[in-house]
Amino acid sequence: MVSNTILWTALISFTAVMVLVGWLGMRKTRSTMDDYVLGGRLLGPIAGFFTVTATLFSAFSYFGVTGWFYSDGIGAWHQVSGTVILGFFIYFAGTRIWTLGRRYGFINVSDYLTDRYASRLTGMLGGLVMIGALVPYIGAQFRGAGITLNAMSGDQIPFWIGALFLAVVVVAYVMAGGFRSVVWTDVIQGVIMYVVLIAGMFIIVRSTAGSFGSLMTQVEAQDPTLLSTPGPNGTFAFPYVLSIILIFSMADFVIPQLHQRWLAAKSHNSLKKIAIFLAVGTMIVYICNFYIAMAGRVHFPDLENAEQVYPLLIAEFLPAGLLLLAVIGILAATATTANSTILTIGSMVANDYWQPLRARRGKTGEANLATITRLMLPAVVIASLAVTFWGPPQIVGLIVDITWPAALMVFPAVMGGLYWRRATVAGAMSSILVGIVLLLLLSSGALPIPLGGWAPGIPSVIVATVTFVVVSLLTKPVPAATVQRHFAPFERLEMRRRRVTSSA
């Protein structure tokens, strides 16, 4: 249990910093969607690295992954492979969609779908899937705050107060400063996360086992299956491991809060550097997670809730100064994923659903649209809190079973649109619908087909991809002008490369 002095100092410091960031962001932000949602598309590689890693590794990195290592062993390391594959997607396809976004003003993935297929219904369908997938994800972040404050206060701060506290602080500074406030808090949190995880790992391992070698010896003596796959619970058999690698890497590329970061990058070069830095940062986070979790197995061998292992360890072993920073870091970590996702959903609702209604009435104006985005944010938070209090109990469960597989069903329509001229409206919409329906049937058990250990998202996205190709070949093509609009920029680039090569 953390002392009241440290806990309340952390809460007050966290709130003060977030309010300051919100105020500074508000001063810099103009009332346009491009500026409020994408920060004027000026995201550099360093800030980009921290905002991407902070968006990816929030409550999931502190509680979810550490708890996963604690309960199921070293197999959770597979997630690093997924991030490396994501880096390839960003490096090649990400720069392609960056070019289109810069040229045509896209602010999110549903915006791209609408323009690529010349169909607002396609963009709205993709947006609805993403919103449905992301609301539980935000709820997972608020749950992380509730778990932390409850565990560290020795039950003095109820779970629901911790979750509500984070929700109120986040929605306040995101409403004020938009994308700039989000990125600035991500940079602060990212620095804290790496400092605390690395320093905490060394301190906790030394305190519980004396050395890394001694720790591994004790873990092996306690349960050797923790150090091999498929692990003590048989979780990480090959089909499931490959499933998670593929699901996370492909879904991360299209999931809106990350997709907006590809669009917000200052340049091709910035985005490529983010792709490279991301893999290195992920490895550091997971190495720390693993050793902290194994120290937890030695010191707290019988925890009922594996996701409490990190807060319990830092409360017992970290010195006061680092512990204070750790508590602030955990709160900031849960906030940084929640803030990105809240802003993304708010912008999608305003841009993709509210704006068409205004246009029918002859009303335009980005300033008003940015205001509508701000007003959408509290509604998103309320829906997410409902998941926090009444949704599935595990953070990993929320993310692995709901958010990422659902987002994955949009991947064929996005990637097909980027590289295949023959992709059609019917192909895109049918693939999303078929994929989501099959995913729900397989996940719920309503369609009792043996999957041989594969996660339901894998057969679902395979069927969605086949549907996309077949239906596209059988249906009316997208107008030639629309196709040319999306492929001409790359044809010109290729012609320039050939001229340079031939002249050399």
Explain briefly what this protein structure is:
This protein is mainly alpha-helical and 504 residues long. Helix content is 80%, strand content 0%.
Number of domains: 2
- Would you state the CATH class of the largest domain? Mainly Alpha
- CATH H-level homologous superfamily name of the largest domain: Sodium/glucose cotransporter
How would you state the average pLDDT, rounded?
86
Contiguous runs where pLDDT drops below 50 for at least 5 residues? none
Strand residue percentage: under 5%
**Sheet bearing the most strands, described?**
none
Number of discrete helical segments: 20
Observed structural traits:
mainly alpha, Sodium/glucose cotransporter, 20 helices, 2 domains, 80% helix, 504 residues, globular
Structure write-up:
This protein is mostly helical and 504 residues long. It has two domains: 4-393, Sodium/glucose cotransporter, CATH 1.20.1730.10; 409-493, no CATH class. The chain has 20 helices and no strands. Helix 7 packs across helix 8 and helix 18 (425-444) packs antiparallel against helix 19 (457-474). It starts with a helix and ends with a helix.
Topology:
Layout: H1 4-28, H2 33-38, H3 45-56, H4 59-72, H5 79-104, H6 109-116, H7 120-152, H8 159-209, H9 212-222, H10 238-254, H11 256-264, H12 268-299, H13 309-317, H14 320-360, H15 366-390, H16 395-408, H17 411-419, H18 425-444, H19 457-474, H20 480-503
Helix pairs in contact: 1-8, 1-14, 3-8, 3-12, 3-14, 4-12, 5-10, 5-11, 5-12, 6-7, 6-17, 7-8, 7-14, 7-15, 7-16, 7-18, 8-9, 8-12, 8-14, 8-15, 9-12, 10-16, 11-14, 14-15, 17-18, 17-19, 18-19
